[in-house]
Amino acid sequence: MPYVLRHKDTSELFTCKLINVYDFEYHGVKMWNNQGIAEAEYASFLLEKGLDELWNWELLELAENLIKLGNVKLNNNATKRLFLTLEGKVETR
Questions:
Q1: Band of the pLDDT at 93, cuts 50, 70, 90?
Q2: Distance of alpha carbon 34 from alpha carbon 69, whole angstroms
Q3: Which of 6, 60, 78, 79 has the fewest CB atoms in 10 Å of its CB?
């Protein structure tokens, strides 16, 4: 299963501008397919995105279908935020 970044206090999933396999930009959930790569890259990735409070974020293994559903709910809208509920569902606000 892929790994994503979740904010420890709010359960917000980290979203940003990404490039899909067809070289199109979209706003979606940042994910890594490998735990080792995720652990090696997430801190520098957050710093690159301008976030310096790295301790507020944690890596979380999340089913790919939930990531895809979250991307659909984001609707390529950078003003929407995506959260993982206590029930394990994704919702936008």
A1: very high
A2: 20
A3: 79
Q: Which pTM value belongs to this model?
A: 0.95
Residue the block writes with tokens 């359960």 = 11
Place of tokens 């790994």: 3
Between CA 86 and CA 69 the distance in angstroms is 16
Q: Residue 72 carries which side chain, given as an amino acid letter?
A: V
**Are 51 and 57 within 8 A, CB to CB?**
yes
Whole-number Å distance between alpha carbons of 72 and 15 = 12
Do 75 and 16 contact (CB within 8 A), yes or no?
Answer: no
Cα three-residue angle 67-31-18, rounded to 5 degrees: 95
How much is the average pLDDT of 30-52? 97
Q: Determine which helix (DSSP H) or strand (DSSP E) holds 25, and give its type and residue range.
A: strand 25-29
